[in-house]
Structure formats: C-alpha cells, structure tokens
C-alpha cells in the first residue's frame, strides 16, 4: 500500500464500519483524521522534495562561491606579488632616476665648467692675439724699417760697388800710367846715363839740363801724389770691404732673425690653429654634451612619466587593497553577526523541537487515549457520551489555542508596525545625515577651493618671478647671440643628424611596441579561446554531475518508496509514526541548512555587488588605457608631421647650399671686399676710440652747460628738517596705533582659532556618529535587500512549482480522458508497452528454442561426436573466395567515431621503416 493512495485506507475503514466494529461518527472522525494526517504527510514529502532540490542548488552555489573565494584569494596573492614587483620596480626606477639625476647634474656641472673654460680660452686667445699683435706690430714695423734700411744699404753698397768698379778701372788706368811712368823711369835712367855721359858737356847741354830737371821734379811730385792716392784708395777699399762684410753679416743675422720670427710666427699660427681646433672640438663636445643632456632630459622625462604612472598604479592598487581589507573586515563582521543569528536560531529551533516533541508525546497519548476510548466504546456505549464531552473540552482547548495564536499574530502585527516606524526613523536619520554630510562636504569643498586659489596665486607669483628671471636671462642672452649665430649652422646640421637618429630610434621603438601589442593581442585571443573551452568543459561536467545526481535522487526515492511499502505491509501505524519522526528530523536539518544557506546566499550577494564594483573599476581602467593609446597615436601623428617638416627644412637647406656652391667663383672678389671692409672697420674703430676719449675728457670737449638754480640757505634747510621731523613723528604715532590694532586683532584671531579647534573636535565626534549611523543604515539596507531577494527567489520557486503542478494536472487529465476513450494514457506508455510486449515475445521464442535444443540433444546417440575444440572456419576457406569470413569470439578492433576531443590530438607522423 503506497503513501500516495489514501483510498485503500478509507475502504478499510468502510469495511470495518460495515462489519459493525465502528460507528459512523467514529468512522467519519477516523477518516477526517486520516485525511489530515495524509495531507500533512504529502505536504511534508513535497516540502522534502523542494528542500532537497533547494539544498542541491544551494550546495552548488556554495561550491561556486567557495571556488570564487579561492579565486579571489589567488587574485589577492597575485596582486600582492605584483605589488611587490611594482615596489621593487619603483625602487629600481628611483635608483635609476637618482643616478640619472646625478649624472645630469654632473653633466651640467661639466658643461658649465667647459663653457667657462671655453669662455676663458676664448678670452685668453683674444688677449694673446691682441698681445702678440701689440708685440709683433712694432717688431714687424721695425723689421720693415730694417728691411728698408737694408734695401737702402744694399742700394748704396751697389752704388759703392759700382763706384769701386769705376775706381778700379781708374786705378787700372793709373797703374797703366804708372807702368808708363816706370817706362819713363827707365827712360830717365837712360837719360841719367846719357846725362852722365853728357855731363861733361854742360855748356852744350845747360839749357836742356835745366828743363829736364824741372820735368823730373814734376814727375817725382806726380809719383809721390799717385802713391799717396793709391794708399788712400787701398785704405778706402779695405774700409769698404770691411763694411761690406759687416753688412753681409748683419744681413745674415737679419735673415736668421727673420727666419726665427717666421718660425715663431708659424709656431704661433700652429698654436692658434691648435687652439682653434681645440675650441672647435670643445664646441663639438659642447654640442654632444648638449645632445646628451637633451637625451638625458628626455630619458628623465620618460622616467618621470613612468614613475608617475607607477605611482598612480601603486596608489590605485593600495586603494584597492584597502578597499579589499575593508570589505574583508565587513564580511568578517557580517559573518560574526550571521553566526550569532544562527546560534539564536539554533536555540529557537531547539526550543521548537522540544515543543514539538512534547506535542508528539501528547499526540501519542491522545492516540492511546483514543484506542482506550475505542475499546471502551465497544464494551460500553455510554462511554461515547464522556468522549464527546472530552472532545468538546478538546474543542475548547483548540479554541483557546486559536485565541492565543490570534493574540500572537496581533503582537506580530504590532512588531511589524514598530519595524515600519523604525524604518521611517532610519530614513529620517539618513536624510539628516545626508544633509549634514552635504554641509560638511560643501565646507570642505570651500576650504579646498580657497587652498587651491592660494596655491594658484603662489604659482602665479612663482611664474612671474620665473618670467622676470627669464627676461633678465634673455637680456643677457641677446648680448651673446651675435657670437652664437656663427656656430648656428653647424649646430643645426648636428641637430638634423641627431633628429634623424632619434627618428630612426623612435621608428624602431614604435615597431617594437607594435610587435609587442600584436603579441599581447594574440595571447589575449589564445587565452579567450582557452577560457571558452574551459567554460564548455565545465558546463558539460556540471551537466553530467546534475544528471547523475538526479538519477541518484531518483534511485534513492525509489528505494525509500519500496522500503516504505514493505514497512506499511508490516505495520502501517508504526510506519507512519516513524515517517513523521524522520520527517521532523529532516525538517530540522533542512531548516538549519536552509538558514545557513540563506546566510551564505546573503554573503554571496554582497560579494556579487563588490565584484560588480570591481568590474566597473576595470572597465574604467580599460577606457583609460584606450585613451592613452589614442593619445599615443596622436603623438605619433604629430611626430610624423614634425618629420615631414624637418625633411622640408632639410631640402631647403640643401637648396641653399647649392646656391652657395654656385656662388663659390665669386669668393675672391668677396674676400677682397671683406679685406676692404675690415680696413674700414679698423678706421671706424680708431675714430670711435678717439671720439670716446674726447667725450671722456671734458676739457677736450667744447660743449658744456651751466646748471640753473640756487643752493638753499641754512634757514631754509632747518625749516625743511623741522617739517620732515614733524611728519616723522606723525608717522610714528600712526604706526603705534596700528600696532595696537594689530595686537587686538591677533588676540581676537587666537580666540577664534581656539573656537574653531573646539568646533573641529565636535565635528569629529559628529562625523564618527554619522559614520556609525551610515554603517547601521547600510547593514539594514543590505538585510532588507537580502530578505527581498529571498522573497523574490521563493516567489519564483512558487511560480515554477505552480506551473509544474498545472502541467502535471493537465497531463493527468489527458491521460484519464485517453484511458476512458480506450487509448493509452501517453505516447511513452504506449512505446514502453510495445517494448515490454517485444521482450515478452522474445523470451517466449528463446524458451521455445531452448526447448527444441534440449529435445535435439536428447535425440542424439550416446556416443555421438562432441568436441570442445575452438572452431576454425577460416582454415577451411580458400583465400580466393571473396566472401565475408567469420571472426569467431574475438572481433577485430573497430575505432570509435572521432569526437570533439580529436582536435587536441596531433596526427602521427609517418616514419619510413628501413629494412
């Protein structure tokens, strides 16, 4: 006898009534009690099913939430690891930035030193050039004068040499004359000999002798004069030769000095060239250092940006960690509250179980009492009257219990009204709190605005100071611009080269970043695919688990039904009592589980809200990253535009170079023009110098002017001093008055400051209270949301169960109608009946075959041939026959159809077998 069909029990009661063992009233009461008990039992079974389903769903949710918690813990650990890594990176970046800043400072210091050295070297060069010019100009002029003198001496020497040659020719003529005179001497000697020979002839030769004497004396005088002239000429010749040798030595010494000066000049020119090369190298080094400085500044900017981004990420992560800690503390607090509520509910459940056990005992006593009354009723009919009286008493007790229930319901309604009042008070307090928070936030906002305005004004002051310094720096820099313009062209060329190198490096970096982005996108797509596969596998596993659990529940249910049927056949009454007790225990366990699941469900709802907030934060981060990418692309476009403009400038510079190269043939003319202009400039400078000297000396300058006016007397000065002293005394009195006012104002300000500090303390207490009220309101709102969600879940479950009930009732009605019409109740029933018939026919056929086989075995002779050998039909078949061959008891291997997992298996590579 099953639990779900009460008609059998009612029929048994009717049969007992027909036999006359029970009266009609007793039978009716028994029927009513049985129907009530049956209804209670059916409700308990239904509730048990519902609670089992709910417990299964809650277990699944619990497992999911546990997995989520584990995942959150893992994420937390990963976030902590990432935080550590980021902190390490930040420390490394700080070290790198410090090193870069130190290097930048050193480079700046070196650049400043080099610039100072350059300036000093340029000054030294200028001074040296000026000194050398000052030293060399007189030497050059002296050398020029010496060269002129030497040239004059040379000319004079040449003239002297020509004169000497003339004199030599004259001397030769004189020598010739002397030789002639020597001839004359010989003639004189001959004459003297003739004179001696003719001496003794005075008379005859007297006149001739006197004439010859006179001629001889004259000739001797001429000889003496010629000898003196020859001696003088020899002395002059010796002097001239000595002068010529001395002049030649002086010319050699001057040539040596000239060579030395030229060597010194060449050495100085080499030194000047070396210093110019050193200056050029220093300029190049300066440009390189400036380029390195720019690169270092760029790297510093990049590192600062990275540092800012890292600090922002670190702050965001620290904020997240603090939020997670707060949430963790909140969850711990809620968990403690839930545990306390669970303990209270357990105490209540214990009290209700005790009450229930007492009621069960009373029910058993009532049943025993009913049995006794029934026995006595069979013996004594008069006992019925007493039973009716007792039933009336029971009715009165029931009415009293109903009154108590109504009173309790009234108390519950009162408590609900109080709850609504408290909710309204909470709302009112929340509105007050919000107003207070708004006022506080407005005050804080005003204070922040004032602080920001002060900061802005301070920044404006700093900017103005910087602008003032920049203007001074510009004034100083414009003075040095003339010299910087000369080196601008070389600098621009070096900058173009550096920019081209930077451009190439930027392109390479962009390519590297694009490759990294593509790699990350590919990894993201691979991970998305893996995630889809994992989700698919998880859904399949969950589906299999649910199906297996459903089958297990069905088997358990069938087993219980069979056990209940077997127990009912033994003793239906005992079975009903046992079922009630077991149901009560299950109800208690399920209520405990249900309350725990409700608490866990509320906790999970809170976590879902928190996860939704985290999702929103992540979406905001993704939007920020997208904006960063867009800004990066915009910067790349700007850089490309700058590159294009630089290329155009490069082309323009090349064109200018070509124009300059075309003008190269005009360089000599331009050089001559430059020389003329330099001479003009030198003349103009000398004129400026003369004019400045005239301006500085007032005596030399003809223009001067007397100043008008008169010097004041002593009386006037004393009167002015008295007036100024009176004004000073008035100012001192004003200053004392203002100092007194300032002291009063400072005292008042201190009082106001103390009042403000006292007010701040009160505001802190009020803020703490507001936070407490806010926490309470949030807890109450969460509890309300949890109860609302529970109610919505129960409502949805009730609607689903109502739909299932309606559907099953419709199926039952259609089945009854089809049975009345002589049709099968459902198509499944018909199919199952056909299957059962087929199985029955198959069994009959198999039994018939078995019977025929046994008869054949009986008909075989006693010594009939029987064998236990393995049949080998293939051995007796020719290989030429194209017919299917039997394979015996071991069929060949047939591979299964390829499933969804085959895509994860690689195809085997065919290997060649070397014999």
Structure, explained:
With 915 residues, this protein is an all-alpha fold. Among the domains are: 380-479; 515-570. Helices cover 89% and strands 0% of the residues. The chain is built from ten helices and no strands. It has helices at 7-19, 24-198, 202-379, 383-479, 481-486, 488-570, 572-662, 667-696, 714-820, 827-859. Helix 3 runs antiparallel to helix 7 and helix 4 (383-479) packs antiparallel against helix 9 (714-820). It is elongated and about 240 Å long. The chain starts with 6 loop residues before the first helix and ends in a 56-residue tail after the last helix. The model has no long low-confidence stretch (mean pLDDT 72). It comes from Euplotes crassus. Residues 166-189, 253-278, 843-915 are annotated as: Disordered.
Give the percentage of residues in beta strands: under 5%
Order of helices and strands: HHHHHHHHHH
Q: Low-confidence parts lasting 5 or more residues at pLDDT below 50?
A: none
Rg, rounded, reads: 67 Å
Structural shape: elongated
SS-derived structural category: mainly alpha
**What average pLDDT do the residues reach?**
72
Helix percent band: over 70%
- Per DSSP E runs of 2 or more residues, the count of β-strands stands at 0
Sheet having the most strands: none
């Amino acid at each position: 006898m099953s639990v779900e069909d009460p008609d059998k029990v009612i029929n048994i009661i009717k049969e007992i009534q027909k036999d006359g063992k029970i009266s009609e009233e007793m039978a009716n009461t028994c029927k009513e009690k049985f129907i009530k008990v049956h209804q209670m039992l059916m409700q308990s079974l239904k509730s048990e099913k519902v609670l089992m389903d709910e417990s299964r769903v809650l277990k699944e949710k619990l497992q999911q939430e546990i997995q989520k918690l584990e995942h959150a813990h893992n994420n937390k650990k990963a976030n902590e690891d990432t935080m550590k890594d980021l902190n390490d990176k930040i420390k490394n970046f700080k070290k790198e930035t410090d090193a870069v800043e130190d290097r930048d400072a050193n480079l700046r210091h070196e650049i400043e030193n080099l610039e100072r050295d350059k300036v000093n070297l340029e000054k030294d060069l200028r001074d040296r050039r000026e000194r050398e010019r000052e030293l060399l100009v007189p030497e050059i002029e002296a050398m020029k004068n010496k060269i002129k003198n030497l040239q004059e001496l040379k000319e004079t020497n040449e003239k002297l040499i020509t004169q000497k040659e003339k004199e030599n020719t004259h001397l030769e003529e004189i020598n010739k004359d002397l030789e002639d005179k020597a001839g004359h001497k010989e003639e004189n000697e001959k004459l003297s000999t003739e004179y001696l020979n003719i001496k003794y002839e005075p008379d005859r030769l007297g006149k001739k002798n006197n004439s010859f004497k006179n001629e001889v004396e004259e000739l001797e005088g001429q000889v003496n004069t010629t000898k003196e002239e020859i001696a003088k000429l020899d002395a002059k010749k010796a002097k001239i030769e000595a002068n010529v040798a001395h002049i030649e030595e002086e010319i050699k010494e001057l040539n040596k000095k000239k060579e030395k000066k030229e060597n010194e000049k060449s050495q100085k020119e080499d030194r000047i060239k070396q210093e110019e090369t050193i200056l050029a190298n220093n300029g190049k080094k300066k440009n390189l250092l400036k380029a390195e400085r720019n690169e270092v500044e760029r790297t510093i900017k990049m590192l600062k940006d990275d540092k800012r981004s890292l600090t922002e990420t670190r702050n965001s992560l620290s904020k997240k960690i603090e939020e997670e800690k707060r949430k963790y503390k909140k969850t711990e607090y809620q968990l403690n509250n839930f545990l306390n509520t669970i303990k209270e509910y357990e105490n209540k459940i214990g009290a209700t179980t005790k009450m229930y056990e007492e009621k069960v005992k009373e029910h058993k006593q009532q049943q025993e009492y009913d049995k006794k009354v029934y026995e006595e009723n069979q013996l004594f009919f008069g006992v019925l009257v007493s039973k009716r009286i007792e039933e009336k008493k029971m009715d009165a007790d029931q009415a009293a219990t109903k009154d108590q229930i109504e009173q309790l319901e009234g108390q519950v309604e009162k408590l609900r009204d109080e709850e609504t009042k408290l909710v309204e008070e909470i709302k009112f307090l929340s509105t007050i709190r919000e107003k207070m928070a708004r006022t506080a936030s407005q005050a804080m906002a005003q204070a922040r605005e004032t602080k920001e305005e002060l900061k802005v004004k301070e920044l404006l002051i700093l900017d103005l100071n910087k602008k003032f310094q920049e203007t001074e720096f510009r004034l100083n820099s414009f003075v040095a611009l003339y010299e910087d313009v000369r080196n601008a062209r070389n600098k621009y060329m070096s900058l173009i080269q550096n920019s081209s190198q930077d451009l190439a490096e930027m392109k390479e970096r962009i390519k590297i970043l694009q490759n990294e982005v593509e790699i990350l996108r590919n990894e993201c797509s691979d991970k998305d695919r893996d995630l889809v596969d994992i989700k698919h596998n998880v859904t399949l596993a969950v589906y299999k688990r649910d199906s297996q659990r459903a089958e297990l529940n069905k088997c358990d249910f069938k087993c219980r039904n069979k056990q209940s049927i077997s127990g009912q056949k033994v003793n239906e009454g005992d079975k009903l009592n046992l079922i009630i007790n077991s149901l009560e225990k299950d109800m208690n366990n399920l209520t405990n589980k249900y309350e725990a699941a409700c608490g866990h469900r509320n906790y999970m709802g809170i976590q879902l809200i928190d996860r939704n907030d985290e999702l929103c934060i992540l979406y905001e981060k993704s939007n920020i990253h997208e904006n960063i990418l867009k800004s990066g692309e915009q910067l790349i476009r700007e850089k490309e535009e700058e590159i294009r403009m630089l290329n155009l400038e490069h082309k323009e510079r090349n064109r200018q170079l070509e124009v300059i190269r075309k003008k190269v043939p005009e360089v000599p003319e331009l050089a001559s023009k430059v020389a003329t202009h330099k001479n003009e400039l030198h003349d103009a400078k000398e004129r400026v110098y003369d004019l400045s000297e005239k301006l500085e000396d007032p005596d030399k300058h003809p223009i001067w002017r007397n100043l008008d006016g008169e010097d004041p007397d002593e009386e006037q000065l004393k009167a002015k001093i008295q007036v100024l002293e009176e004004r000073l005394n008035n100012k001192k009195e004003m200053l004392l008055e203002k100092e007194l006012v300032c002291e009063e104002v400072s005292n008042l300000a201190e009082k106001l400051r103390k009042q403000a500090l006292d007010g701040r303390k009160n505001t802190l207490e009020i803020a703490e209270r507001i936070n407490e009220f806010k926490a309470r309101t949030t807890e109450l709102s969460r509890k309300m949301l949890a109860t609302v969600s529970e109610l919505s879940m129960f409502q949805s479950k009730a609607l689903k169960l109502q739909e299932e009930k309606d559907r099953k009732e419709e199926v039952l009605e259609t089945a009854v109608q089809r049975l009345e019409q002589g049709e099968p109740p459902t198509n499944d029933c018909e199919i199952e009946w056909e299957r059962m018939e087929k199985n029955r026919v198959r069994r009959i056929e198999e039994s018939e075959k078995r019977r025929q086989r046994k008869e054949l075995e009986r008909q075989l002779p006693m010594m009939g041939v029987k064998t236990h050998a393995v049949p080998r039909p293939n051995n007796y078949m020719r290989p030429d026959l194209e017919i299917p061959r039997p394979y015996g008891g071991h069929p060949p291997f047939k591979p299964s159809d390829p499933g969804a997992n085959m895509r994860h298996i690689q195809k085997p590579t065919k290997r060649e077998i070397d014999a």
